[in-house]
Design a protein that fits this description.
Length: 116
Amino acid sequence: MPISKHGIYWNPKKSPYNFEKYDSNLEQMMMEKLDADPAVVKWMKRHGITIPWVDVQKHMRRYVPDFIVEYIDGHKSILEVKDPSRVDSDEVKRKRKAAEIWCKRRGMEYAVATVG
């Protein structure tokens, strides 16, 4: 299980903001990785994207993905960071399916990443 470590990532190199908040150590590690990746032009956590999805009880939910990332070749991606133990959970699968449809309609891709 990831450590639930909340905090502020100050002065990110590739975010348009002077800080980004993280909700886990995995998100913090991904921020560092995105800043160091030469293929990444821009990323942000405070992106304002909300994706509707349906839970197992058929209730409509709202999902805010972790990151939006723009790459040097111009393509954009929604990036979700997950602990490997949660990647195959029903909730993550449902959110992923909804996010993949949302992204496809916008010419984007969706990816789940594990950081470690």
